[in-house]
Amino acid sequence: MNLSFISYAGPGTWRLSRASAVVRWYGLKAVTPIQKKVVAAKVGVVRHMVQLMATLPLANVESCTRDPRLVAAGKSFLRRALEALRDLGRYILAKGFGEPVAEYGAVGPALYRVGVLPPRLAQLVAKMGSYRNRLIYGYQEVTAEELFTLLTRRGGDLLEVLEGILTWLRAHPGMVERRL
């Protein structure tokens, strides 16, 4: 096997010339820099979906259920925000820590385990994952009251978790790729 494209770049670091990436090995885990453009795209989706949720004319539960288009739009905005936030967490875990996470509910605990989020925010992420699964797989299980509460009062939770992740990224610039 020809491995001439791999060269030693320092303690625990190998340079892959073909891929022009630096890979650090910790045990059997490959850790690569977190790309700013990927983070920015996912952050943009979360923020945009929360903004769209705030524009829905939801004065009360009855107004939420009166127009089925509002229900559909609200569910879509919420689901897309939840998925983008979860995908951001998964991306950081996979790239920054070499820890792939498949289940939505496992993202929060994994982010806590590696030190990205404090316990309270990690629990919020786990709870958000269960709401996403209910929105996708059990449409009847999300009541109008729950959807109204999620759309009108819980958008701040999404932004709080997002800010927790961004705070960690700012505090660990060595984990983030320096160029776009």
Please write the string of helix (H) and strand (E) elements.
Answer: EEEEHHHHHHH
Instruction: Examine the coordinates and then state which fold CATH places here, giving the name of the CATH topology of the largest domain.
Output: Four Helix Bundle (Hemerythrin (Met), subunit A)
Structural class: alpha+beta
Name of the CATH homologous superfamily of the largest domain: bsu32300-like
Distance between the termini: 33 Å
Major beta-sheet overview: 4 strands, antiparallel
pLDDT < 50 runs, ≥5 residues:
1-5, 17-23
CATH architecture term of the largest domain: Up-down Bundle
CATH class of the largest domain: Mainly Alpha
Task: Quote the average pLDDT.
Answer: 80
Shape: elongated
Report the β-strand fraction as a percent range: 5-15%
Radius of gyration, CA atoms, in whole angstroms: 19 Å
